[in-house]
Amino acid sequence: MMQTAKNDLRSFKFGGKVIDYDLLFSHRKTLEIAVHPDRTVVVKAPVSAEISAVEKKLQKRAGWICRQLEYFRQFEPRQQPRSFIGGETHLYLGRQYRLKTVRDDEDSVKLIRGRFLVSCREDIEPEGVKKLLKGWYAAKAPVQFNCSLNRCWQKLRFSGLKKPVIKIRQMPKRWGSLSAKGIISLNPELIKAPKECIDYVVMHELCHLKHHDHSPAFYSLLASLVPGWQKIKAKLEIGHI
Ligand SMILES: [Zn+2]
Known about the structure:
Elements: H1 2-5, E1 8-14, E2 17-26, E3 32-35, E4 41-46, H2 51-73, E5 89-92, E6 95-103, E7 108-112, E8 115-120, H3 126-155, E9 165-168, E10 176-178, E11 183-186, H4 195-207, H5 216-225, H6 229-237
Parallel strand pairs: 2-4, 6-8, 9-11
Antiparallel strand pairs: 1-2, 3-4, 5-6, 7-8, 10-11
Helix pairs in contact: 3-4, 4-6
Bound molecules: zinc ion.
Zinc ion binds near residues 204, 208 and 214.
């Protein structure tokens, strides 16, 4: 159908910011812009609407859209501040591990007996511990994310579609995204969430291979592949990662 073929995830620029939005065409007379509490911007347009007209309207309402996005930001989960000192807990795949720091001959991070054991060659400074832990997470993330992609891909029966590749990218507002070239970008922080949350994010992006929008068809496909995805999403959002 023509109107669904045009549905798209798009973005526009305003005051140096890039604002993403879902463009949905339907049989309606007027253009509607809504900002939802999950900080998605949804534009519903008449089937006959031109992209240029949609963008003009978005520019006109951009101030309001930014204010709404800012308002909903306060309800977003925050990252818990960490001090990177012994005794505090750090997450990996949804589980808390207590941090133990020791002086040793070489820098290393090991996950043993339910603890993060961070060894430092030099004085044990929070900055150094932070760097070592960051490196450890960065090494684990591609391995776990690709395992998740393999698990999810097996459940799909999309014939003729190419399996995407995973890229890890800092994204302040999103857990994942899918590019037109078939690259799934994942937020490195996702490595701290349970595997079911990682799988949910990957599956969400894989569903975008079929539906490039957040239309009812997209959500019904997602629900058939991840029953109860709403609960998993909520877990991810309140997980204090
Ligand atoms: Zn999406």
